[in-house]
Design brief:
heterodimer; A: mainly alpha; 2 domains; B: alpha/beta
């Protein structure tokens, strides 16, 4: 059972987990902001959101990288810096592990068919057209 | 004009398919790639077989904003009907599902609300006799 206050706090924690680079907060700070011990926070977060805060943060960063790759002209290096990666190499490796292809390749493939509004309507007409 | 398709946003399609089939008991009907995502629908084994629920990725930031606001406010996105709410509640809790509202009477129905692990709260309701 999870009460409304804890639900709000975990939702807020999810927002905090999205912060990258200099704004990135350590897990224990976010747990404390939720009023929970780290282990309890991880358990409750996972029960509601289906994955640990750590996994969520990795996926959120990959999602942010995808959006920047698709919607801006920023170089992969700039994007890696903006997201707080210590090196272009580690950023590319992590991205490839999460998404399946390296960042530059992703931009080349996915950029051709941006799926901004995914809806059954768009699907039935063959997808959004550029 | 017929209502045959309804949809729900999910923040991870693979996890959603697993939860909606293995845990909730729906059955996968369609699953094919659409760009880097998938078109996935499930149906209820209790029928009808042509009333589908699609599990859509919440790629659009507007979808995420909407979904997250509902969850933070404790508002369920969708409601499913069951014959025995208390039995369903027990079964789901044994599977590790977290409820935000335990079974309680609410007018003509008995309801409960749980988290679907994909960013949504779901309501279950049983019509009272």
């Amino acid at each position: 059972m999870i009460g409304p206050q804890e639900l709000r706090r975990l939702s807020r924690a999810r927002e905090l987990l999205r912060a990258c680079g200099e704004a990135r907060l350590p897990l224990r700070r976010i747990a404390r902001a939720s009023g929970l011990s780290v282990s309890h926070f991880i358990r409750r977060f996972r029960a509601v959101f289906g994955e640990t805060p750590h996994r969520f943060r990795i996926r959120a960063r990959a999602r942010q990288a995808r959006e920047l790759l698709l919607t801006t002209d920023a170089s992969v290096t700039e994007i890696s810096l903006r997201l707080g990666s210590s090196s272009l190499g580690s950023f590319s490796t992590r991205f490839a592990r999460e998404v399946g292809v390296p960042p530059s390749r992703y931009r080349a493939i996915a950029g051709r068919e941006p799926v901004e509004a995914f809806s059954c309507l768009g699907l039935m007409t063959g997808g959004p057209h550029p | 004009m017929r209502i045959k398709l309804t949809s729900i946003f999910v923040d991870d399609q693979a996890r959603a398919l697993a939860f909606y089939t293995d845990v909730l008991g729906f059955r996968k009907k369609t699953d094919f790639p659409v760009g880097e995502y998938r078109w996935i629908t499930v149906v209820s084994p209790e029928g009808p077989g042509d009333l589908e629920l699609s599990l859509e990725p919440n790629v659009n930031p507007a979808a995420r904003t909407f979904q997250e606001a509902l969850l933070a406010q404790g508002i369920p996105h969708t409601a499913f009907e069951v014959d025995d709410l208390d039995a369903e509640h027990r079964r789901l809790r044994e599977r590790g599902v977290l409820f935000t509202r335990d079974p309680a009477d609410a007018g003509p129905v008995r309801i409960a609300v749980f988290a679907d692990t994909c960013g949504n709260l779901i309501q279950l309701y049983q019509k009272r006799k």
